[in-house]
Amino acid sequence: MVVWSPLRFNSGREIANRFVIAPLTTDSSHDDGTATDNELEFVRRRAANGFGATISSAAYVEQDGRSWQGIGAAHDGHLSSLRRLAEVMHAAGGLAILQIYDGGRIAKPELIGERSLRAPSAVASLRPGAKTPRAMTSDEVRGLIENFREAASLARKAGFDGVEIHGANHYAVHQFFSPRANHRDDHWGGTLSKRMNFPLAVAQAVRDALGPKLIAGFRVTPFEAEADGYTLEDAKQLCHELAKLDLDYISVSLDDYRKSRPTGETRVYNGPVEKTYTPAESPITEFARVIAGRSAVMASGGIKTCTDAEGAMKLGADLVAVGRAVVVDPEWLSKVRSKSEASILAGLPKDEREIAEGLSIPPRMVDYLLSRPGWIPRL
Ligand SMILES: Cc1cc2nc3c(=O)[nH]c(=O)nc-3n(C[C@H](O)[C@H](O)[C@H](O)COP(=O)(O)O)c2cc1C
What we know:
Strand content: 5-15%
Distance between the termini: 32 Å
Shape: globular
Mean pLDDT: 96
Bound molecules: flavin mononucleotide
Number of strands: 13
């Protein structure tokens, strides 16, 4: 079956099978952005099941863009923590990929100070309680691109096989691409082509820092569900340009790969459905067509069984990233491989201590998971 077959990336690195652990924030790092033992254990236990690759939780590239209590890749002080993380991911033989991000307007004021909140434009996010950021100066925009470059070079020094740019889910790279969040009229905003400048500059900087032999990936939200957001056609154009930069993969971020549903900016999971648009064809298929083999395509969202993984691949994906299923059941992939899917845990246990201890989920992550009703299934 294709899902168990290897794939060679443009960079020459080989992934042993098509299953990847999706980036999963634990919200459990030390205040200084170094990884805690319990978040390393969260990763170790899941990676031990033979995933082709593990993608890290998103690491901030600049303190002022920090959206939660996660790991950093912002300066040399983070290097030894990043080394430990890469070692844990490599322990079972899979590839180790560091995801890097900046929060922009959805950085967390409690972590960075309200006055530090900066974004492409002074427009507040739709998240409940969001504060209005200030617009970044051109120097700050260039500085942020340099920090993405620096983060990629830290990843290289730390022994990762590659880096994924978090260009999805309403964080800063996404914000620069969004006409809702980006009202600039300089080099970084205005037309579609100018809104692409920031994501492309970050991708180029990361590729340069990694060199040609490490994996460079980019995660994208395929369209914005909100009114006046960017369209699937806009995102296809971006993917076309990204593929010219010799990226190894483009990852399509969906809540549910079958329903072509991206994450809404409000993240109110049990509220009214705000999505109004369903493309005629799956965004996975649309992206695969426009990328045309120049980069691999990764799909994610609601993959819970081997049949789901094969379904996403039939739509055009080369790789699948699995998130909530491996949060809930750390041994998920072993059960899929041994065809014991009936024994896969379908939800988090009722008892919170059992969640933390039985499933090796750091206590702060347990709180984070339970803070959004409807996000993660409960038994
Ligand atoms: C606890 C948790 C943390 C997440 N953290 C990240 C993250 O750091 N970066 C990211 O790109 N996506 C993140 N996501 C989104 C997942 O990678 C994935 O795209 C999403 O959960 C949908 O896939 P799934 O249905 O397999 O969970 C997170 C999801 C969860 C549940």
